[in-house]
Amino acid sequence: MIMTSKPQAASIEIKPVFDEESLYEVQKKVHPRAVSGIFATWRWALVWITQLTFYGVCWLPWNGRQAVLFDLVERKFYIFGMIFWPQDVFFLAILLIISAYSLFLFTAVGGRLWCGYACPQTVYTEIFTWIEQKIEGERNARIKLDAAPMSSRKFGLRSAKYAAWTLLSLWTGFTFVGYFTPITTLWVSTWSFSLGPWETFWMFFYSAFTYLFAGHMREQVCKHMCPYARFQGVMFDPDTLTITYDTERGEPRGPRKKGVDPKSISKGECVDCGICVQVCPTGIDIRDGLQYECIGCAACIDACDQVMEKMSYPKGLIRYSTEHAIEEHWGWREIVGHVIRPRVVIYTVILGAICVAFVWGIATKPALRVDVIRDRATLAREVEGGLIENVYRLHVINVSETPHRYAVSVTGLPGIDLVGDRIVEIPAAGAKSISVQVRVPPESGKKGSNQIFFDVKSLADERISVHEKASFLQP
Amino acid sequence: MLKVLLVLWPSFVVAGIAEGVFFTVIDPQELYLFGQPVHFSKLATYSIGFLGFWVVCAGSSLMTWFLLLGPGDLNRSRNDPV
């Protein structure tokens, strides 16, 4: 497989695709230093929330089935009490639009909140880095280990790390497939070695991707592979919150003794300790200004605040701020006051409207669906008694979670009646195709196409009914 | 390696989208292969479909990459160091 070897400076020669500028430069391995603080706590909270959801929800039962299951074989998506059929693809489209607009809105207001806190790439990198740190030690220990020649100790540490990563990846792959195949049966067949070939394939495929992305590629995914990272800039404006280094306050930077008043040595407040660079998961220097590589994780804010505290300087040399706020020396009050602006209002209104439509659509989703298909083989024919007959196929889908018996009837022409099943019984979340012959007297209706209606009504609940249009051909 | 990434990654993303749209609209059992109804399991059809989309999209990406080569790349003599 590709990309399994870590890119190391000078060891791999890569010719740029373009002569003028290199799209992908040779990467230096980033060894992010661990950091603690309010934003680190937020990031870990998001790791727990998203991963408890991902690893946990697939095990929840609901009405004797898996609560959330995207059953590809039956072509039905179960989400707690709701069942979605291919005909409901409309809801999926709306959900995607909602996600996109939420992303636009959050980005316009708070910058790359998604990237910094919630993106799976960030979350898994965070977990994998934590494992790495627990096994191989802190940043300096890892750099030393990297440079050291292979020894039994290095081999042991590396093996332990790779083994832990592999186990986590395999569990992630198993969980992923567990959303498409009932996870309890998947669990049983895993241990009895009776997994289907494709389930096995996707489990390893997803595991390998998790391992590769979170263990080895990390920030390169954000820098080179993520389309969002490349266009998120268009949602930014001068009032968007970004992680900002206060150049005016920090420069000229330079080392000094603890507690020295920066003015007395005609320096800014940045002590040039470089910790903001060491903690950065993408290996950039935030002091160079806003860069597309910055995923907005705020690790540098936590790190710098700790240094400022030690130096007895006010915190926030690196902080969430806006371009306007830095220029005009605004405080939080003015920043918050500028949140409401045309771009944000437009995004919010559109998002609100789509959300309302979505909820309304879900709430009024019919419990019964009927598709009428004319039998194309025989258009119209004369049967005994001189009656004219048309044949239809009714595809009746019970979208509800209880079995139902439905009565089928037809109206729309004088003397119209049907031959065949008048009662159709369909299990919960099931579907059935029935053949229905509709007969009318020859003098009924006009020559050619006549409009008729099929009525399918639940015997148990009058409100569950469908009135479906069809056309009857009179020769 | 990064050239490979440039070709394989965008095609993977687009193949995922194509797969989703195609199989939402079309039931695998409605498909015909060389005039015979597809007899694979649905999971196999979906999987083969995805890998197929990926290959096709990768072909397109590969061609884009090829056409993006500048004169410098094309005029380079065979004996020049790569």
Describe the structure in your own words.
The complex is a heterodimer of chains A (475) and B (82). Chain A is an alpha+beta fold and 475 residues long. Chain A has 2 domains: 339 residues, no CATH class; 107 residues, Immunoglobulin-like (Sandwich). In chain A, the strands form 5 sheets. In chain A, strands 8, 9, 10, 12 and 14 form a 5-stranded antiparallel beta sheet that branches. In chain A, strands 13-11-15-16 form a 4-stranded antiparallel beta sheet, with no helix packed on it. In chain A, a hairpin with a 4-residue loop joins strand 3 and strand 4. In chain A, helix 2 packs antiparallel against helix 16, helix 4 runs antiparallel to helix 6 and helix 4 packs across helix 8. The longest helix of chain A is centred in the middle third of the chain and has 26 residues. Chain A is elongated, with a radius of gyration of 32 Å. The N terminus of chain A is likely disordered. Chain B is built from 3 helices and 2 strands. In chain B, helix 1 crosses helix 2. Chain B is elongated. Chain B has one domain. Helix content of chain B is 67%, strand content 5%. In chain B, strands 1-2 form a two-stranded antiparallel ribbon. Chain B has 82 residues and is mainly alpha-helical. Chains A and B meet through helix 8 of A and helix 1 and helix 2 of B.
Question: Number of folding domains of chain A?
Answer: 2
Structural class of the helix and strand makeup of chain B? mainly alpha
How is the biggest beta sheet of chain A arranged?
5 strands, antiparallel
Q: What does the radius of gyration of chain B come to?
A: 18 Å
Broad shape of chain B: elongated
In which range does the helix fraction of chain A lie? 40-55%
Which percent range describes the beta-strand content of chain A? 15-25%
- Helix/strand structural class of chain A: alpha+beta
Greatest contact between two chains: A-B, 29 and 25 residues
Indicate the mean pLDDT of chain B.
82
